[in-house]
Predict the structure.
Amino acid sequence: MRKVALITGVTGQDGSYLSEFLLEKGYDVHGMIRRSSVDYRERIAHLEGRPNFHLHYGDMGDSMSILQVVSKVKPTEIYNLAAQSHVQVSFDSPEFTADVDATGVLRVLEAVRLCGLTQTCRIYQASTSELYGKVEQVPQNEQTPFHPYSPYAVAKLYGFWIVKEYREAYGMYCCSGILFNHESERRGETFVTRKITLAAARIAQGKQDRLLLGNLSSLRDWGYAKDYVECMWLILQQDRPDDFVIATGVQHSVREFCYHAFRRVGIELEFRGEGLDEQGIDKATGRVLVEVSPDFYRPTDVVNLWGDPTKAREILGWNPSRTSFEDLVALMVDHDMAKVAAEGAAAKVRTNLAEYLEKGIVK
Ligand code: NAP
Ligand code: GDD
């Protein structure tokens, strides 16, 4: 049996872990990358040069490139992870987000169909808990109604439904994993967890003065990305195609994440005040280390994500509790303490990079 996987979004957090996972399982792994003026492939650099790891140029906005890659690789499994994945950015670039995150999914499905691979190629679509958006039920499971609450979520909703449509219309084995937030030491630096762990490390080492955040009360079900890529694979190994919620079943606030991250670097934070006036204060010194800025509020924010992973546990046999919240925070902070210590002189310049990027260079 050929085991040939094509991963779109191979350079991303999940793409890099999934590549490692599938190579370990004996797959030939093909990744699709987009052309860029700088070669920034840090997350997969350690895999390049391996005999079973191949890269191809393609873009989710370009049907022909996707068609070419699919026809050349003839994958037995496609993991469609490529996306403009930042919710805040989707408010600034809604059309691009729709093209990549919605129409892009259709392009992948059509490429498989046009290449005559509908019966031999299984497809995983990276769907998201953002579909629940302005939540109508807590916790959320596969039966919970969707209520997308950002341009990103609306685009991903199209992806979810077009996958379902192709499954029913053409009998294709295509599925969506409705994944709740998953983080890691490879997480992009503008997502809230990584922004916090990097800031905690820099503040502890005297390379940053304070951390500016948005909604501290937002609640998330945070898991470890390395655990979640196993589910993507499991979803494609079932007798019949189906959609699954993947989550830990445990919920924490952004404020709690902050508290644990700073505690890991030896700083005990106390939060005082409310809304824009809330501050995270170092109990030992009285210094204000965390402040709230309206710059990081979203036009509409999803504030109560909490997944119910019962179906994944029972049908896929997946363990949602492998990495606890505390362990996740610790592994990210420890990684960033070492990274920041190695940064040297350039560190000060990068101090507010995450904030700068997130606000957008045009503002
Ligand atoms: P990520 O780190 O932002 O990676 C996104 C990947 O998509 C990158 O490889 C990026 O390439 C690629 N990409 C973006 N636009 C593209 C385009 N036009 N053509 C080709 N490739 C493009 O995201 P992630 O955290 O790994 O998430 C993977 C997928 O899961 C995404 O679809 C995301 O929406 C979804 N998801 C993530 C989470 C989570 O908590 N992480 C939860 C639910 C769903 P570059 O490196 O060139 O930018
Ligand atoms: N990014 C960011 N930066 N978020 C902040 C900040 C900040 O300074 N302050 C508070 N938050 C809040 C956001 O308002 C949001 O409610 C929450 O922290 C999480 O934000 P992100 O880490 O940016 O992730 P997300 O939940 O919006 O989106 C991620 O998870 C989705 C799954 O639920 C992304 O990975 C999406 O691609 C994914 O689909």
User: Anything to note?
Assistant: Residues 8-15, 34, 59-61, 81-85, 100, 126, 128, 179, 181-182, 188 surround NAP (ligand 1) (CB under 6 Å). The two ends are 53 Å apart (CA to CA).
